Amino acid sequence: MTNMTSGIGASRFTFSRVAIYATLILAAAVYLIPLVVMLLTSFKSPEDIRTGNLLSWPQVIDGIGWIKAWDTVGGYFWNSVKITVPAVLISTFIGAMNGYVLSMWRFRGSQLFFGLLLFGCFLPFQTVLLPASFTIGKLGLANTTTGLVLVHVVYGLAFTTLFFRNYYVSIPDALVKAARLDGAGFFTIFGRILLPMSVPIVMVCLIWQFTQIWNDFLFGVVFASGDAQPITVALNNLVNTSTGAKEYNVDMAAAMIAGLPTLLVYIFAGKYFLRGLTSGAVKG
Amino acid sequence: MATLELRNVNKSYGKGLPDTLKNIELKIDDGEFLILVGPSGCGKSTLMNCIAGLETISGGAILVDDADISGMSPKDRDIAMVFQSYALYPTMNVRDNIAFGLKIRKMSAAAIDEEVARVSKLLQIEHLLTRKPGQLSGGQQQRVAMGRALARRPKIYLFDEPLSNLDAKLRVEMRTEMKLMHQRLKTTTVYVTHDQIEAMTLGDKVAVMKDGIIQQFGTPKQIYNDPANLFVASFIGSPPMNFIPLRLQRNEGRLSALLDSGQARCELPLSMQDAGLEDRDVIVGIRAEQIVLAPSEPNGLPVIRAEVQVIEPTGPDTLVFVNLNGSKVCCRMAPDDAPQVGQSLNLQFDPAKVLLFDANTGERLGAMSSPQAHGRADNVAQFKGR
Amino acid sequence: MSSVAVFSKASPFDALQRWLPKLVLAPSMLIVLVGFYGYIFWTFLLSFTNSSFMPSYKWVGLQQYARLMDNDRWWVASKNLAVFGGMFIVISLVIGVFLAILLDQRIRKEGFIRTIYLYPMALSMIVTGTAWKWLLNPGLGLDKMLRDWGWEGFRFDWLLDQDRVVYCLVIAAVWQASGFVMAMFLAGLRGVDQSIIRAAQVDGASLPTIYLRIVLPSLRPVFFSAFMILAHIAIKSFDLVSAMTAGGPGYSSDLPAMFMYSFTFSRGQMGIGSASAIMMLGAILAILVPYLYSELRNKRHD
């Protein structure tokens, strides 16, 4: 993220400048409060939660919420890892190959295919859930992480292809022509010329897919209940149980566990995250 | 080192779409420098891609050394190309850029080193070998792109507007350098440009294209002095040729036309005497340098008095604009002879040197008696295409 | 061509090279045709059958759609979507544009502030729902905090209020997505031609006038894109409802996505569930088609 600004106003110290900063800081506080509350609550004892309030400091830092939460959802955390890692890698790889063909090796019908694929970015998954679940069942992959990997790869293709296609379209095709005249073939051109240039878009795609798949709930709850469910489903089940006393510290710790991986990715690779959101999602 | 021949080459992107290339016929000898010139969208780049094998042709044949290469893939054609955008591989340094094609062709490492050394010395880019393309200036990138082509030692070089991304000064420098390089290496070259000055200065042969058709194919001199039609006449030359719409009349048995500058009129006798031209609308073409100040004593040539509208000093010459028959007409004069705006001048030009074009079709009319027109039929007419 | 040696027979390697792009794309083409369009058609078919717990292919015409239209819960869900979607989109756009303009005033630490605004977008809707469910908890959440801070009469129990629970969804969704809208508009603002703004300044236009009359109108495409994405999020919203209210109290905070899931997978009414999925597809198309139409038309103008 560059620090380039196009701001119009002068940067003099005036009343309006103070008002602008005050508004921005207030807004930042509002955005931060839920995260702060989650953190504070997760370290409180149940007693503390009842007597204190959302933003009160814990009387004693109590790790029991985190321990209980990990006991409940920890296993599903690893399910999410087992689903996300292969699904992200496979869908990114296929997307890269598709994007390469769709930009550099167009053939009759490839544009039509791209149009059809693009619609997949807007597809409400509810319209494919039932047939997909029949298929997953037929394949014997119901309630397995493998089944979820398959589903995420298939329905992630639209976005991964879009990312790479749009990236490669901006690369002059003279590069491919030059390589062809130099004697390079289809895979050589991809591996030796284009792939080394693709680091930014690979990052964007990996991060986009990671957040999408890690955060997915719909596919998780439909295709994998029980032992194979991802952490989002486990978290949802935890916060929606009506049996026993509500332990909000456990809920919040579990929510933090579910949210931390994507949050960390965002903090450390925010540039690519933003670029994915705007480039991929905007230009449909 | 090779001859290149295109036989009736056609290219179409599908039924219903207009042809991109129509019946392209041309042939150049070993070591010749061919220019394909024309406005954007005229098909010149498509034609070049077809020669390279990057696009397939829909009909006809492309022959190198009399062997048909139309069906071969680009890598087997032994052709190297320099692109307008240079198309340097951005993640490889200069050395690897030059060596890439050789590596793919499984040349030994020692031979590759030798070749890179030879080429980089030739192009004076030895100090750049470890840099990435992004770290090079436009002119340096251009050299590397040429180096990549030279290293392959191909039968034919293709240049796709290689100088158009350079600034004006560098472009002129590189133009001279390319001509030197070609004189030294004598490799058959096809060079695409939209710049008519490059076409005139670099080419042994020039093919002027428009709408997928070769309008004229000949030496730069032929193209300049003896254009096949209005389009070629207007495209080649700077300032562009003057065009004056006229109506031909037969007067005392001679064809003539009336010139009108607004303040004077004069009868322009034409040397051409073809029957059937009377009462026709034609366009008279005359180059700026052929319009001169009339000497004080009559010399037998018609004189017309005209008022100067605008003058444009260019340094070596001054361009003087007057109005003839409602058209702006440019005369090229020595700066010392240049008049003031509003002044009236006595101008004259040799009626024998003017070119006549059909006002409707743009075709050249009749054989001229001017000396330049000799020998036109044998090398121009058959390639006109229309 | 008789005197010419002919090499037009391509080698097997060349032939393979020529087919490679198609071969590489083929699996994806198959996946898209079957997994996208085939499955949509399959769902479409199911919506005309009497499928319940198991798919059945007994044709019942538009009966499932008729049942859907008679279903009070579907209407609640649809009405909720209209309220939720409308408020979510409008509020997110207003906040996003407002923050983007403020951030565009040569703000120090802009990158840091932007990071804070945008982070909720990285979270799962389930996490967002969980957090806001706790924040809005009647009795222990904001409710109690504000009373603790001295606002004695403060009551906040919308999560339990059938008529207001949908606003809780709006609050959480706006919190998650408005930062993203901000980021889109900030990127758009940075792309505005500075010379136009300078020209307006030279003409003596005030800052608010410049933004309202010149800058924002030039960001029309960003508005459309943001609208598309927000509408898409709204229509697909399932996880947020699931985590935050589970559709309750009763089914007062149901959304179509929730309705579809619960009829199809919990209540064994595949037919009506499929019909509702097709209705959702219709809603997406109703937004998407005009959008794509205008996009393509603009492209042709370029």
TrEMBL record, chain A:
The lineage of its organism: Bacteria, Pseudomonadati, Pseudomonadota, Gammaproteobacteria, Pseudomonadales. InterPro entries: MetI-like, MetI-like_sf. It is a multi-pass membrane protein. Its main location: membrane. Residues 77-269 form the ABC transmembrane type-1 domain. This is Glucose ABC transporter membrane protein. It is found in: Cell membrane. It comes from the Bacteria. The chain crosses the membrane at residues 20-43, 83-101, 113-136, 148-168, 189-210, 252-274. Keywords: Membrane, Transmembrane, Transmembrane helix, Transport. Gene3D superfamilies: MetI-like. The keyword Transferase does not apply. Pfam families: BPD_transp_1 (PF00528). Belongs to the binding-protein-dependent transport system permease family. SUPFAM superfamilies: MetI-like. PROSITE patterns: ABC_TM1.
From TrEMBL, chain B:
One of its GO terms (molecular function) is ATP binding. Residues 4-236 form the ABC transporter domain. GO terms for biological process: carbohydrate transport. It comes from the Bacteria. The keyword Nucleotide-binding applies. One of its GO terms (cellular component) is ATP-binding cassette (ABC) transporter complex, substrate-binding subunit-containing. CDD domains: ABC_MalK_N (cd03301). Transmembrane segments: none annotated. It holds the Pfam family OB_MalK. Residues 366-386 are annotated as: Disordered. Keywords: ATP-binding, Nucleotide-binding, Transport. NCBIfam families: PRK11650.1 (NF008653). PANTHER family: ABC TRANSPORTER ATP-BINDING PROTEIN, MALTODEXTRIN IMPORT ATP-BINDING PROTEIN MSMX. This is ABC transporter ATP-binding protein.
Automatic annotation (TrEMBL), chain C:
It is a multi-pass membrane protein. One of its GO terms (biological process) is transmembrane transport. Coiled coil: none annotated. Pfam families: BPD_transp_1. The chain crosses the membrane at residues 23-45, 81-103, 115-135, 164-189, 210-235, 270-293. InterPro entries: ABC_transporter_permease, MetI-like, MetI-like_sf. PROSITE patterns: ABC_TM1. GO terms for cellular component: plasma membrane. Residues 78-293 form the ABC transmembrane type-1 domain. Keywords: Cell membrane, Membrane, Transmembrane, Transmembrane helix, Transport. Belongs to the binding-protein-dependent transport system permease family. This is Glucose ABC transporter membrane protein. It comes from Pseudomonas psychrophila. The lineage of its organism: Bacteria, Pseudomonadati, Pseudomonadota, Gammaproteobacteria, Pseudomonadales.
